[in-house]
# Entry
Amino acid sequence: MILELADIRIAPGQQADFESAILHGVQTVISKAQGFCGYKINKGIESPERYVLMIFWETLENHTVDFRNSPAFAEWRAIVGPYFAAPPVVEHFELLAKSLSV
Amino acid sequence: MILELADIRIAPGQQADFESAILHGVQTVISKAQGFCGYKINKGIESPERYVLMIFWETLENHTVDFRNSPAFAEWRAIVGPYFAAPPVVEHFELLAKSLSV
# Structure
């Protein structure tokens, strides 16, 4: 399993609308994508306009090829894109180690 | 529960040594800290010198006050600090939403 980590900055004061939008986008678009395994949406404490979206995919290509080349990518961006203050910074990670409790 | 997200960049070619060190540091120092709930260590795919360390704490202050003011903080930094190419970027997050599967 691969972690997509998207570091998102939104325009000030748009938190409530963005939170509704990202939930809607994840639940209606991303969660139906091939290879989708799960998600977490994290909201910044020190930086209240920062969100870290974590999407777990079966393979790297499920995100970078299958999802990004599908019509779902444009649907997703149409839902969340209007709130972005800058292009999200997106990279992928492998899990090196974790505790039993998380 | 609060997520500490530490975005770490290490010196090139030090991956194997750093991975041993961070595992040792988390298991022997951080996991004994007050309020520690769990951890994940993620290794960058596009950026092989990038690691994202996630530590889950009961409260924000368990990290920012209790841990950082304890002798354990210096112990931890002595173990992992030598590998850092730059000071880690550390912020904290609340969980807004997640799927059942993660």
About this structure: Residues 5 and 54 of chain A are 5 Å apart (CA to CA). Chain A has one domain: 2-89. Chain A has a mean pLDDT of 97.
